[in-house]
Amino acid sequence: MRPKKTRWVKCAPEERCFKPLCRPLSKLKSVYLTLDEFEAVRLACLGGLKHIDAAKKMKISRPTFSRILTSAHSKIADGLVNIKAIRIEGGCCKIERRRR
Fold first, then answer.
1. How far apart are CA 99 and CA 60, in angstroms?
2. CA 39, 51, 91 angle in degrees (round to 5)?
3. CA 33, 36, 37 angle in degrees (round to 5)?
4. Within a 13 Å sphere around the CA of 74, how many CA atoms are in the beta-carbon half?
């Protein structure tokens, strides 16, 4: 299997875990969203970028971006529908440093 290409993210999320209020974290199952999935959602859903433009920002191909976004949507839906904590961690990412 080919190694994954490094994906570039603008910034790490301030919060790394989101959970329903109805249960303590210790009693919840979790869904794990990678940093690149978080960045894909941020760019496409919050930023309103087209997939090709968002893929360029992450320095990956458009089909790869679409697969990452589809995976993220599936995990977020699983967390919301099945009352799971959504944790953000991992992925083969590098955080882009701001230029001065």
1. 20
2. 30
3. 45
4. 7
Token pair 């941020």 in the structure block, residue: 42
Select 1-7+27-91's CATH number: 1.10.760, 1.25.10, 2.30.29, 1.10.10: 1.10.10
Predicted pLDDT of residue 98: 58
- Token digits for 17? 């875990």
pTM higher than 0.85 = no
- What DSSP assignment string belongs to the chain? -PPPPPEEES---S-SEE--TTS-GGGS-EEEE-HHHHHHHIIIIIS---HHHHHHHHTS-HHHHHHHHHHHHHHHHHHHHTT-EEEE---SEEEPPPP-
Kindly report the average pLDDT of the chain as a whole number. Answer: 86
